[in-house]
Structure formats: C-alpha cells, structure tokens
Amino acid sequence: MAEDGRTAWIVRPGHLVAGRYRLLSRIGSGAMGAVWLARDQLLGREVAVKQVLSTAGMEAGEAAEQRARALREGRIAARLSHPHAITMYDVALDDGEPWLVMEHLPSDSLAGVLASSGVLDVARVAQIGAQLADALAAAHAAGVLHRDVKPGNVLIGRGARDDGVVKITDFGISRAQGDLVPSRTGPITGTPAYFAPEVARGHDSTGASDVFSLGATLYTALEGVPPFGLDESATVLVHRVARGEVVLPQRAGALADPLLRMLEPDPARRPTMEQARDHLAAVAVAAGRRGAVTSVLAARTPVRPVGRGAGVRRISRRTAVTVLAVLVAVAVYLLVAAGPAVL
Fold first, then answer.
1. Does residue 161 sit in the same domain as residue 278?
2. Inside any domain, residue 150
3. Could you list the residue range(s) of the whole structural domain that residue 23 is in?
4. Which segments are annotated as binding site for ATP?
5. What is the pTM of this model?
6. Is the same domain home to 97 and 112?
7. Is 10 inside any structural domain?
8. Pick from 53, 88, 103: which residue ends a domain?
9. Burial letters for 193-202: b for 16+ Cβ neighbours within 10 Å, e otherwise?
10. Which residues are catalytic?
11. Which residues span the membrane (predicted)?
C-alpha cells in the first residue's frame, strides 16, 4: 500500500478492499488499472473490482483528478442497466484509493477468442453485434459515450450458466454527453486500430464514433484484422485511420453493407446505434439465427472458449498416431503375406 504517497500501491490476493471485498485473483486489466476477482463478504457473491491506477507519488492536484475520474467512471457506468452491459455495483475507497466494483461474468474477451480460435462466421458476428449495439444504444440514450469499443472490451460468457452471454465492459474512458472536458490537454484516449476517423483527427467523440468503433470490432471478428490493418507505429496507424481508407471486407457476406455503413468516414452519414442494431439483427435472422429480431437480442452466442484450440490440436495428434499405427500394421501384413523377397 502507499505510505505517505511515496511508495507504490501494491496489493495481493487476500487483501480486503474497503473492509468488504476480499481479493481472490487478478483476472485482467482495463483502461485505468488491474481487474481482480473478489468476494463480497457482505452479500456473499463474487464480483469484479477494478484497481484504479495508484495515486502514489502524484502531486496533490493530479491525485485528486485521478480519484475524481474514477468516481466519474462509476457514476457514468451506474447510469446504464442493460442485459448486454456489465453492471456497476459500487465505488469503494480503500486507504484513499478508489476501486470500482462491478458484476463478474466468467468469460473470455472477444479478442482472446479470436486469438485462439480464429475468425467467426457471419451469423455469430451479426448476433453479437446486434446485442452490443442494443447495449450501446441504451448507453447513448442515457447520455453516455463508451469511447473505447474494441474486441478486448467485449466479453463472451463461458461455463454452464453463462455460456454465450455477450456483454460490453470497461467504461473507463467513457464520458457523459455534456460533461465539461478537463482543461488540461493530453493524448487521444482509446485504441487507434478502432478509432473513428474524426477522433483520429482530434475531434471529440460522439455517438457516431461509437458506431464506427463497433463496426471496426465486428469487422475484426470477421476478417481477423481491423479495417485499417495493423502497424507497430501508433502514429502511422492514426494517420491511416484519419484518412478513413477502410480495406474492403472479404468474408462479410450479408454483413458487408451494414458494416460499411457503420464504417462510413463521414460521421453524419453513419447509421445511429439503434439503426445499426436493427440492421445487424436482420442479418442475424436471415443468416439462420432462429426467431425474430427480439429473439436475436436475447439469444446466447456460444463460441469456442480460449484454450480449446490446443485441445483440438492434441486430439488431431492422437488421431494421426492412430492412423500411422494402422498404416504400419497394414504394411507389415502385406510384407509377410508376400513371402521372402527374391534377391
């Protein structure tokens, strides 16, 4: 823990946050800090708590701004209650440091699923997209912009109870529409590969920017790379995004038209999030997802969990060994049946 603001703020499993949340294990990271699985000692349930980056060593004004930002994130996220968005439960202060307490969904991120299992088919991507768009439409209606929609912030539930549940998470750099922008300038926040062109050019995010970022996320799920490709240099990538030159998708099928509308360089020509949701849901229905649009929004979308790819490879190796053994046995039989070789 921090001592007089001079040492790093370090916690470990077993630490009790704010006298209530017992840390179990670190499960990830977000835009502002580490995410832990914890046990709510009062209500007897597992929760996810985000350890906001420590204010240790900061100037007083900077530390106060960091705490205010965490509290603002909690307030913004608490405005949203939706089946496809992670629910914010509490903002807790522990030794003066803020922690965000939220719903825990046993899950893999969409980024992890794509890394281990490859791209997804049109029907699954359309259904995932419709559900995320529905949650983001609700956020926009509540006056909240996400500003960092990307595969790493999309969770796909796993386990018997949560398999296929899709939720958007991490409103860590979100902003309420109408909030005052801090006077101190800084770098553009977000992930360049999923920026809208206007954001890459330095303009403020809008609901249309979230639409673009969702389109870029779904494009990645279909194509395996973001719509502007990848580059080790963030600066080069930002300039490429700013020009708005999207690489046309090759695997999108019936999703090509809705995706390209969402990825329109001019934000005024993009659909609203509600329109994007309806277009995506219609594609999901046409692609074979059962039921009407409302059923698509409520359905689960099971995908291959992270790590299962290795298991498939193990099965393939066993199968190969079996086939090889059979071939060797057949070869031996044929040699024996043919009798001794004539020299």
1. yes
2. yes
3. 16-103
4. 50
5. 0.79
6. no
7. no
8. 103
9. bbbbbbbbee
10. 148
11. 321-342
CB neighbour burial string for 207-243, b if at least 16 within 10 angstroms, e if fewer: bbbbbbbbbbbbbbbbbeebbbeeeeeeeebbebbbe
- Tell which residue, 266, 263, 267, 261, has the closest CA to residue 279: 261
When divided into structural domains, the chain yields a total of 3
What's the 3-state SS for 144-178?
Answer: EECCCCCHHHEEEECCCCCCCCEEECCCCCCEECC
- Tens digits of residue pLDDT in 141-182: 988 889 899 999 999 999 999 999 999 988 754 444 444 333
Most confident of 155-169, 278-292, 301-315: 155-169
Q: How confident is the model at residue 334 (pLDDT cuts 50, 70, 90)?
A: very low
Q: How far is CA 180 from the centre of its chain?
A: 27
Q: Which residues contact 291 (CB under 8 A, 6 or more apart)?
A: 285, 299
Same domain? 90 vs 113: no
Between CA 264 and CA 266 the distance in angstroms is 6
Tell whether 310 is covered by a domain: no
Q: What is the mean pLDDT of residues 201-228?
A: 95
Q: Is residue 146 part of a domain?
A: yes
Size (the chain), residues: 343
What type of residue is 163? D
Residue 19's alpha-carbon distances to 45, 70, 306, 334, in angstroms, are 15, 19, 34, 76
What is the rounded distance in angstroms from the CA atom of residue 81 to the CA atom of residue 289?
A: 25
Q: What is the CATH number of the domain that holds 253?
A: 1.10.510.10
Indicate if the alpha-carbon torsion angle 190, 196, 200, 205 is positive or negative: negative
Alpha carbon distance 109, 30 (integer Å): 12
Give the contacts of 33 (CB within 8 A, at least 6 positions apart).
50, 51, 52, 53
Nearest 5°: the CA angle 56, 60, 62 is: 80
